[in-house]
Amino acid sequence: MLTSNTGLRKVRIEKPLNTSPRPQSDAKPILALTAGEPAGIGPDLCIQIAQLDLPYNLVVIADRELLQERASLLRLPLEIIDYPPPANAEHKAGALRILHIPLAGPATPGKLDAANARYVLNTLECAAEGCHSGEFDAMVTAPVHKSIINDAGIAFTGHTEYLSHLMNGQAVMMLVGGGMRVTLATTHLPLKDVSGAITQRLLEQKLSIIRQDLIARFAIPKPRIAVAGLNPHAGELGHLGREEIDIIIPALDRLRAIGMDLIGPLPADTLFNPSKLKGYDCILAMYHDQGLPVLKHASFGTAVNVTLGLPIIRTSVDHGTALELAGTGEADPGSLIAAIQMAAVLAENRK
């Protein structure tokens, strides 16, 4: 159930979502793409995507005038097709199907404006509602700027946490790239708060979700998950910290007892050895900058952010809003293309 305090009914949509069930014969999943922070590169990426002949069924959720203005700035052609209809037409080069959500005020490339923070969340809520109702099969998100949303007086720590709140779920962040799947026990927390946030219950919940989605969405029948320790050398038998002994090992032992294939806790400095990675289907890192720098070093610009643990499918890019590149034409759409491809695969697997 969606539980946003602002309520999805407040999202101003010129044409209502079609919430009637779609026939199972649809050739391609319908993917909702949110354009992200309007001052960043999200709109640019959507317009770059419009130039490609991609075999996907895309609906971009954004302000149509914003995209038209940015296309003119980039000197790229753009035909805007209002959604709906057609609901089952594949993407074609030179055009975007747009579900229009209006900006609160003008958007200038590279210049953040807190007045448009609610617009950004409206696009996310619209995509989530469409996925929840069955209108869309998955949502793909361009980057947002966390600080400007907070500056608008709205508590926001990231897509993963926000969607988890909307759907009253327990979401898990996963990055896929460089031959790795890396998940996180904690996400956007100050480092000083990480140890206190890691509990046996948290680890058991997260690992159960990871295993379930590896089976159901990634079609891995018996996933093998490597778990990083929190401390250097995984605590060195308690000499460098007791979190492994008191929290991580007991949680892993309980899950092993019910049949989960878990390795660890392992020292993070050797966990990512290429020869060892071949034996894992996924890694659980204890905090954001323990696992993601390694993956992004191996795959930046082509990695995909996947949210596990939700009743919907959501993928995203592996980078931020890159305000300095907005409107220049220099943004690389590689990660967004990969996120669209991943969303389509996960949607097909779910069928």
Concise description?
With 351 residues, the chain is of the alpha/beta class. The protein contains twelve helices and twelve strands. Pathway: Cofactor biosynthesis; pyridoxine 5'-phosphate biosynthesis; pyridoxine 5'-phosphate from D-erythrose 4-phosphate: step 4/5.
Describe the structure.
- This protein has 351 residues and is of the alpha/beta class.
- The protein folds into 2 domains: 1-169 and 310-351, 3-Layer(aba) Sandwich (Isopropylmalate Dehydrogenase), CATH 3.40.718; 171-309, Isopropylmalate Dehydrogenase (3-Layer(aba) Sandwich).
- The protein has helices at 42-50, 64-74, 117-133, 146-151, 159-166, 191-197, 200-216, 243-257, 268-271, 274-277, 288-299, 334-350; strands at 30-34, 57-62, 79-82, 95-100, 138-141, 172-177, 180-184, 224-228, 261-266, 282-285, 304-308, 314-316.
- It has a 12-stranded mixed β-sheet with strand order 3-4-2-1-5-12-11-6-7-10-8-9, with helices on both faces.
- Strand 8, helix 8 (243-257) and strand 9 form a beta-alpha-beta unit.
- The longest helix is centred in the middle third of the chain and has 17 residues, at 117-133.
- The radius of gyration is 20 Å and the shape is globular.
- The two termini are 21 Å apart.
- Mean pLDDT is 89; it is low at 3-25.
- Pathway: Cofactor biosynthesis; pyridoxine 5'-phosphate biosynthesis; pyridoxine 5'-phosphate from D-erythrose 4-phosphate: step 4/5.
- One of its GO terms (molecular function) is NAD binding.
- Its main location: cytoplasm.
